[in-house]
Design brief:
By secondary structure, the chain is an alpha/beta fold. The chain folds into two domains: 83 residues, 3-Layer(aba) Sandwich (Cobalt-precorrin-4 Transmethylase, domain 1); 173 residues, Methyltransferase, Cobalt-precorrin-4 Transmethylase, Domain 2. It contains twelve helices and ten strands. The strands form three sheets. It has a five-stranded mixed β-sheet. A hairpin with an 8-residue loop joins β8 and β9. The longest helix has 15 residues. Pathway: Protein modification; peptidyl-diphthamide biosynthesis. GO terms for molecular function: diphthine methyl ester synthase activity. InterPro entries: 4pyrrol_Mease (IPR000878), 4pyrrol_Methylase_sf (IPR035996), 4pyrrole_Mease_sub1 (IPR014777), 4pyrrole_Mease_sub2 (IPR014776), Dphthn_synthase (IPR004551).
Length: 272
């Protein structure tokens, strides 16, 4: 990959769908190339600038995670294809496979869902149905927590002012609070805070800032926010087809013995 990037005339660093966990300058030093930060506006509405002359010179778009992890990147590839621009994708690890670091087996995961920041007037709960579908099959659910980068207030958006709100990253305690709020409305027991096991993860990638915490939703919501470290945060809702090896592996990250007790008594996982 490094050689491919060094051949490019322009190198863009996408800074919208995720966040880079190291300084941009370190990447520039490693590749020996200046990086052009591609913010939300450029990626979503000004992608023609990225594709400009791409049929004549090599251009790279660096993505945090895997390029096919977001429809935004798929859209850029489709635009390039429509213009007859040849493309090459170099795949990378993403949260979709790195989540296995928590000890749950990847082939036991069902549909992934996204959880957005609730507002006073907007609290979408369609994610609940997807988690319920996974739960019916006993599958785990990866919950991707919302990030707000380069967002405009309604007032600034209406007035056409390019003034942006500070970045916001959803935390584990807020996510658990929102899940509990929806469960209180639905009352289907899919996300019962006391009997639903979950695993919180942050800065997944194996570095010193990675954090993994396992417990019931109630326990995770009660932890001091500092326990989870820096964003980005993700949450796994544990499915009932929980294997004893999964229980044992994740127990190393458990808040306390309640993890194993709920696995035994509620999830009916035999002790080995």
């Amino acid at each position: 990959m490094a050689e491919a990037i060094k051949r490019c005339e322009r190198v863009y660093l996408e800074a919208y769908t995720s966040i880079l966990m190291i300084e941009r300058e370190k990447l520039e030093e490693f590749y020996g190339r200046s990086l052009i930060v591609a913010d939300r506006d450029m990626v979503e509405t000004e992608s023609d600038a990225i594709l400009e002359r791409s049929n004549e010179v090599d251009v790279a778009l660096l993505v945090v995670g895997d390029p096919f992890g977001a429809t935004t990147h798929t859209d850029i590839l489709l635009r390039a294809r429509a213009l007859g621009i040849p493309t090459e994708v170099i795949h990378n690890a993403s949260i979709m496979n790195a989540i296995g670091a928590c000890g749950l087996q990847l082939y036991n995961f069902g549909q992934a869902v996204s959880l957005v920041f609730f507002t006073d007037t907007w609290k979408p709960d369609s994610f609940y149905d997807r988690i319920a579908e996974n739960a019916k099959l006993g599958m785990h659910t990866l919950v991707l927590l919302d990030i707000k980068v380069k967002e405009q207030s309604i007032e600034n958006l209406a007035r056409g002012r390019k003034i942006y709100e500070p970045p916001r990253y959803m935390s584990i305690p807020l996510a658990v609070s929102q899940l509990a709020e929806v469960e209180e409305i639905r009352k289907e027991g899919v996300l019962d805070p006391e009997t639903t096991l979950a695993i919180a993860m942050s800065r997944v990638g194996g570095g010193p800032l990675q954090r993994i915490v396992a417990g019931t939703l109630s326990q995770l919501g009660a932890q001091d926010p500092s326990v989870y470290g820096q964003p980005l945060h993700s949450l796994v809702i544990v499915g009932k087809r929980l294997h004893p090896l999964e229980v044992d592996y994740a127990s190393a990250f458990a808040v306390d013995e309640i993890w194993k007790r709920v696995a035994r008594d509620v999830y009916k996982v035999p002790e080995e």
